[in-house]
Amino acid sequence: MDKTGCIAVLNAGSSSIKFAIYDAHEDGTELFHGQVEGLGTRPRLRMHTADGTVVATRDWPDNGLDHRAATAEIMSLGRELLAGRPVLAFGHRVVHGGTAYAAPIRVDASVMTELAKLVPLAPLHQPHNLAPIAAILEAAPHLPQIACFDTAFHRSQPALAQQFALPHALTAEGVKRYGFHGLSYDYVVGRLRETEPALAGSRLIIGHLGNGASLCAVRDGQSVTSTMGFTAVDGLMMGTRTGALDPGVLLYLLEERGYDAKAIEDLLYRKSGLLGVSGISSDMRTLRASPAPEAREAIDLFVYRIVREIGSLAAALGGVDGIVFTAGIGEHDPATRAEIAAGCAWLGLKLDPVLNVGGNGRISAEGSAMSAWVVPTDEQRMIARYTRAALRG
Q: Could you say which of 150, 186, 234, 333 is catalytic?
């Protein structure tokens, strides 16, 4: 392996691409990171060094870039800043790996064909995840590309935890619970193994709470069950997604309100959650700052659904030793953490108010029956590790 080489990571969302470049030989050494946001509206690119110093900014007019064009811009800027240091491989976050992919894999044309078949299972994510891969396959087919799957971490779940109460023929076709946010959970478990090994081997509930939100029950570092299921719209209420919903509501909308499949998809993925309930915003920071009763209602429902699901996961684990908060809301919103903890008082959970505001490491109070932690996630770094391992064979 070239000693000057780098690993590039792309994490594509519906309107943005996060990216980072790491040294290929020193695990954890970040060189640059950045994001292209506003794809489809007014795209803007910002790239930073590892310490946060801005090294490049670019803006485009309305609808100036799609995901493929944005990938080309990232590659061009990366070449410029790396000044001759070669990129040895690209790692990508791919939300859905289906039943076939339970570990990172090098992508070729046949793998792309199989991953494209999973688009109906993750319509908000999968097409955008695959667009940069397709662009690089076309522009630099010689470079290895490693797909890392959000579903892979959950393949350790017992068969019963993955099954719906549907006819066996549908289950055999792959209509089952997959779980998502696996790269985040994998990273958090890895950090705990390094810093709190006894905790990592216990019964944990990890909350990935952000615009996309889910909980995962973990025992001995492995996924036992999670709130997300067949798609990434199941489970908790999210920024714009409904979370768990009575299927009868969908039948009602189809039969009585004249919704078609596209309108239902739009409702489930883009017009519900914190945005739909509040009518104000999908951003928890905006809702916390708003005096509107609708904002408070949305926050209360978000917390209520989390507390209910914590009870469900506690039952699946047969008890809980610790709870871990991660992702945007989980890491940065002490008020939400405090409200969730208050709802879990029946589990003996009690936060230390000062530690909770600090939001770093252990935040539970002395005498709490279970510990509580804030552990920042880093999906890009997890992808880089997997990509580096794939290169080493």
A: 150
For 11-15, the CB contacts below 8 A with 24+ separation are 11/92, 11/93, 11/379, 11/380, 11/383, 12/67, 12/92, 12/93, 12/128, 12/129, 12/131, 12/132, 13/125, 13/128, 14/124, 14/125, 14/128, 15/39, 15/40, 15/41
Rounded to 5 degrees, what are φ and ψ at 194? Answer: -75, -40
Question: In the chain, how many H helices and how many E strands?
Answer: 16, 14
Side-chain-side CA neighbours of 71 within 13 Å: the count stands at: 25
Asked about 220 being catalytic, the answer comes back as: no
Measured CA distances, 277 to 245, 297, 307 (Å): 14, 7, 18
pLDDT of the residue at 99: 87
Q: What's the pLDDT tens digit per position in 278-334?
A: 999 999 999 999 999 999 999 999 999 999 999 999 999 999 999 999 999 999 999
Residue 70 carries which side chain, given as an amino acid letter? Answer: A
pLDDT below 50 — which residues of the chain? none
pTM to 2 decimals?
Answer: 0.92
Q: How far apart are CA 208 and CA 188, in angstroms?
A: 10
327 Cβ neighbours under 8 A, 6+ residues apart: 181, 184, 207, 208, 209, 210, 212, 213, 377
Q: What does the alpha-carbon distance between residue 243 and residue 256 come to, in Å, rounded to a whole number?
A: 22
* DSSP type of residue 360: S
pLDDT of residue 1: 57
